[in-house]
Design brief:
Layout (H helix, E strand, L loop, with lengths): L5 E2 L4 E2 L13 E7 L5 E10 L2 E12 L3 H18 L5 H20 L7 E10 L4 E7 L3 E6 L9 E4 L10 H9 L3 E6 L7 E8 L9 E2 L12 E6 L6 E6 L1 H4 L4 H10 L3 H14 L16 E8 L10 H37 L17 H8 L20
Antiparallel strand pairs: 1-2, 3-15, 4-5, 5-6, 6-7, 6-12, 7-13, 8-9, 8-14, 10-11, 14-15
Helix pairs in contact: 1-2, 5-6, 7-8
Length: 394
Amino acid sequence: MVVVQFDRSSGRNSNSSDEAPTWGNSQVGLYQRVSKGTDRCTVRRCTIGGERIQLSLLLDGHGGTEAADHCKLMLLDSFILACDGDPSVASMKSACSSAFQTAHRQVRTMQGSTSGCTAVLVVINEDRWACVCANVGDSNAMLVRDTQDSKPTPQFQMLCENHRLSDNLAEQQRIIAAGYNVGRAVNKGDRGKPKGPLRAYPGGLIFSRAIGNADCADWLLAEPHVSVTLLQPESKCLVVVASNGVWDVLDPALAAVLARRAKDVHTVAAALVQRATNDRNPYYTSEWNVPLDDTTAIALSIGPSARPTTLVEAERKKRQVRTINKVEREQETDGHRAALTLSIAISVLHLPLNGCSISRPPQQDSTTLHAACRSGLSVLPCRRRRSPPPRPTT
C-alpha cells in the first residue's frame, strides 16, 4: 500500500505539487434487473470537513425487505454522523464500522421482522484520492485501474471479502469454534441427504456476516471488512459495485473487460447486468429464463476533471481512426466505380467527349446513365462555344 502524508488543514496530499490534477465530481451510473424486489441502492454527495465525498451503498435483502429499506434510509446518515467532520482515511474506516453496527442493532430490534441484508458501502474522497470500501455478505466491489490504458487485459482488484460460508473457510472455523453448527440443509424429499450451500445454525443463513437477521444467534456479525485504496492523482479509474446476481455469473476479469469497453458509467452498469442475466445458469432461473434473484450494478468513474468522462479513450480513438480509414477507402472505391459507370454510359450513348447536348429526355436515357447519376455524379449537357461573328471589312 502506498503511504501518503495528508495535510488536515487543506485536505490535500502534502507531497503533491500545484501541478497535480484535481479530481472532478465522480460520475455515477446505475442499472437494475428486478425479480424478487429485494435489492436496494442509493448514492449521495456530501462535504465532510470541507472535502468532497461520494457515497454509494448497495443492499441485498433476504427474509423480507425491512432491513434493506431501513439501511437505505439510515446507514449513510449514520456514516456521516460518525465521521464527526473528520474526512481522514482512519476516520472513514471507523465510521463505516460504526454505521454498520448501528444499523445491525436497529434492525434487530424491529418488531415482527427477522429480515436481513448484505451491504457494500464505497466512500470516495475526491480531495485525497482515496477509496474506502466496507462490506458484509456476498455482494462485492471492484476497482478497474487506469481505464484509459489500451492494454487488452485491464488491471483490477476486488475490494470486498466474500462472507459466504461455502467460500470462506476462516469464517466457518470461527463459527464452529464459538460452539455453533455449520452444515447443509436436509430435505426430506431427498431421502435425508444434505443439499445446497453451507449454512450456519441456528438461523440457517448462508453468510457469516450480515445486517439484521434477529433469528440468528450471536455467530452472525455485522462488523464489516474494510479496505483502503490510495490512488494516483493522475489516474482515471472505475469502481463497480454489484450484487451477487452479477458476481455469481461473471468472472471478475470478464467484468473488468466489459466495464472498460463501455463508453460511460451508465453503459457499464447496463452491460454487466445484461451480460449476467443472459449468461445465468438455468439453476438460478425460472421458466422463460427469468432470473430468480435481483441483479444490480453501480458504476463510478473517478479521476482528474481534465480527463474526459468516457472510458477507454485510447481504444475509442483507435476505433475512430479505423473508421475514418475505412470510410476513405470506401469513398475512393465508390468514386472509381462511379467514374467507370459514367465512362460506360458515355460510350453507350456515343456522347462526344468535347461536349454535347443530350437529345433524349432523362426518362428515356439508358439505365446505365441513371446508375451513374445515382452514384452522386451529374451528367450535364455542354454547349459549344459559338464563334464570334466576322468583323466587317472596311
